[in-house]
Specification:
Distance between the termini: 63 Å
Mean pLDDT: 76
Strand order of the largest sheet: 4-5-7-6
Number of helices: 3
Radius of gyration: 23 Å
Order of helices and strands: HHEEEEEEEH
Oligomer: single chain
Number of domains: 2
């Protein structure tokens, strides 16, 4: 949609420039505004397509690996999660307050970290034929449940001794 808008604005700008009419200051302002809108749309398209091919997340039995973190987020450290969004899906991870993920390094995936709430938001664009983020929800839930059960079992075994 963004690329269509950018193309439409570029065609309008081309039509405005090639006319033989006298050009006044209003014409110049409209050409500049249309140029800025088309540049913004093209920039957003570039950012979206750049992030599509990058690794979003990797799920392992011990934890979740994000491309922008040096260490994995253990399943025990994830208190809860939710998948939201209409145009593109967002995976919101609510981490244990004691967990500190460290420094975020730059990556092409669209991942935001809220230090104040210890919350990570991962945005994914739905691509036909690829694994969709909502399909990962049950697996993430199972991993978290197993990790918390493992902790409870370890505590039980320690108290039993």
């Amino acid at each position: 949609m963004r690329s269509l808008l950018a193309g439409l604005f570029i065609l309008i700008i081309y039509a405005c420039i090639t006319t033989d009419k006298a050009h006044d200051s209003e014409w110049l302002k409209s050409v500049i505004i249309l140029s800025m809108i088309s540049a913004f749309c093209l920039f957003r398209c570039y950012r979206m397509y750049k992030s599509i091919g990058s690794a979003l997340l990797t799920m392992k039995p011990r934890g979740l690996i994000l491309p922008c973190l040096d260490k994995a987020i253990l399943w025990e450290q994830i208190d809860s999660f939710e998948i939201t969004g209409q145009m593109y899906k967002k995976l919101n991870l609510y981490l244990n307050p004691a967990f500190k993920p460290g420094e975020f390094k730059p990556c092409n995936a669209k991942i935001k970290y809220d230090k104040q709430n210890n919350h990570i938001q991962i945005s994914a664009y739905e691509i036909k034929g690829k694994i969709k983020l909502p399909d990962c929800g049950p697996l993430i839930s199972d991993y978290i449940t197993v990790a918390h059960a493992r902790l409870e079992l370890q505590l039980f075994m320690q108290n039993k001794k």
